[in-house]
Amino acid sequence: MWDNHRALGSLANFLLLASLFMLLYAGGVWLVHSPWFPVKKIQIDGALRKVTPEQLKYIAAHELSGTFFTLDIDKTRAAFEKLPWVREAQVRRRWPDTLEISVVEHEAMARWGGSGLISTQSVWFDAASDAKLPVFYGPPGSEKEMGAMLGQLRAALAPSGLKPAVLTLSARRAWRVELDNGVKLELGRGDVLARAERFARHWKGSLAALGYRIETVDMRYPNGFAVRIPDYKGAAGKRTQITAGATR
């Protein structure tokens, strides 16, 4: 082989090309990791109402690391999505030194008992709000079901002028609604919306005209409903608790 000048020439050319390749690769690695390409600008877009500039600045200062080329996009996105009100964050590089971050916030639809909020996408998230929101009480995993029912009950109860304030779903999938005037509706299982619509039809015409504080209206009867009026006084003048009925 050592007497074969052609083979030696080919080997020398191969070694030269390999050396050049390794040199270019090492130079590229050094260039990518060098401080010559820092992220100098962070541009944040989105209609932000709950996420504060201070929170975003804190994430940028403490969670972002690396150069323009080495910064971990997925890790950066996850860091911003840890903020309580952030539903989604998208991160993009823009040459030569800018990081673009688009933030989408949660929009609260209801409270989940005494812990966290439910978004308009029926997703639980851990945040606080001073807004007046309906409250959900239900089994774990029922967020979407309760979110859908809230919208349907609002439409069904609209003729009464009343709105759901507390929505409860039992483990047996029975529904109970407390309205914004304090009246509680027992809607049970099955024809829940039909019962709510029947209540709405009778509220202004008969129930609201009773002249007493109504505590509960049980709509689970097939052809009527029962009304609980704890402050009603009987014929003897004593405070009693009665049940009143009404037909279709």
Description:
It is a single chain. With 248 residues, this protein is of the alpha/beta class. It folds into 2 domains: 41-105, membrane protein fhac (Ubiquitin-like (UB roll)); 108-247, Rossmann fold (3-Layer(aba) Sandwich), CATH 3.40.50. It is 32% helix and 27% strand. The strands form 2 sheets. Strands 6-5-4-7-8-9-10-11-12-13 form a 10-stranded mixed β-sheet, with helices on one face. A 3-stranded mixed β-sheet has the order 1-3-2, with helices on one face. Helix 4 (143-157) packs parallel to helix 5. The longest helix is centred in the first third of the chain and has 29 residues, at 5-33.
Topology of this structure?
Elements: H1 5-33, E1 41-45, H2 53-63, H3 73-81, E2 86-94, E3 98-105, E4 108-112, E5 117-119, E6 124-125, E7 135-137, H4 143-157, E8 164-169, E9 175-179, E10 184-188, H5 192-207, E11 216-218, E12 224-229, E13 242-247
Parallel strand pairs: 1-3, 4-7, 7-8, 10-11
Antiparallel strand pairs: 2-3, 4-5, 5-6, 8-9, 9-10, 11-12, 12-13
Helix pairs in contact: 4-5
Question: In the CATH hierarchy, what is the class of the largest domain?
Answer: Alpha Beta
What would you give as the CATH superfamily of the largest domain? Cell division protein FtsQ/DivIB
Structural domain count: 2
Regions with pLDDT < 50 over 5+ consecutive residues? 23-34, 235-244
Helix content: 25-40%
Largest sheet: 10 strands, mixed
Number of H/I helices: 5
Question: Which geometry do the CA atoms define?
Answer: elongated
Please, what is the average pLDDT?
Answer: 84
Structural class: alpha/beta
**CATH topology-level name of the largest domain:** Rossmann fold
Count of strand segments: 13
